[in-house]
Amino acid sequence: MLDVLQLNSGSISIRALAESGVMFSIIAEDGTILALSPAAVRNRERIGQPGVEAVVGRKLDEVYPSQMVAERMAIMRRCLSAGRSLTFRSVMWGEQYVTYVHPLREQEGIPGLAIIAIHQRVEGDVVPELYQGSEFFEAEHNEYGTLASLSPREVEVLSMLGQGHDTQEIAKALFRSPETIISHKKSLYAKLRCDSHISAALMARRAGLTKRDAERFTRGTAHGPSRRRDSGTHLD
Question: What span, in angstroms and rounded, lies between the C-alpha atoms of 195 and 146?
Fold first, then answer.
């Protein structure tokens, strides 16, 4: 296991990031999870994921669905081959993250090529213009946690609830009757075990839900919790 507090060379001071409370993971070119920062470990504990010992040293394909792994590995290859940073938005464990991926070359203590993925948990809308320092895009394959039980239409309704719209506004935007929207709301509340409009809206904001997420549910690229619950990290 790499000690991130001993990594202090290269274009990014990994030790400084770790000591400043930044959440990150270090992933080798072959997909092996080399290290997690203390903040990333605390984040896992917060959401009830297994300890670092169950993650570090394993490969991404031991953790995630194959389609998700293929997409994340493609991101890593793009980052390493171009030698430049990439930034992408994703949903993991039902929470939205913006991840900054940076290549690590000739980093003391790291064997071969690797990337550092710096994770920022973001609620609500993500503004791409704030990430102009690198190419920004959205991941297609995401893990929506309990939200994965919803239908595409319910996700669309929930996303609008999270954006502050009321029943009448949602009905008008989706060209449906208010009664239909109320029916969708009752269904999604039951599936998510929400007891109020407010708690459902908070779940939507934590995931940063948008209409584009609803489209992913339609395309089949929205994933539920991994069966491999003995592990689970994220190159979001």
Answer: 15
Read off the DSSP letter of residue 149. G
Q: Which residues pair with 120 in a beta bridge?
A: 98
pLDDT in tens, 2-45: 555 455 445 567 888 888 899 999 999 999 999 999 999 999 99
Domains of the chain: 4-141 (3.30.450.20), 147-220 (1.10.10.10)
* Residue position matching structure tokens 């605390």: 42
Element (H, E) at 116: strand 114-121
Token pair for 138: 């959205």
Half-sphere CA count of 161, side-chain side, radius 13 A: 26
Task: Identify the helix (H) or strand (E) that includes residue 146.
Answer: none
Q: Which two tokens stand for residue 224?
A: 């539920």
Q: What value does the CA radius of gyration of the chain take, rounded to a whole number of Å?
A: 19
CA distance 30 to 171: 48
Token duo for residue 185: 């709301």
91 SS3 class: strand
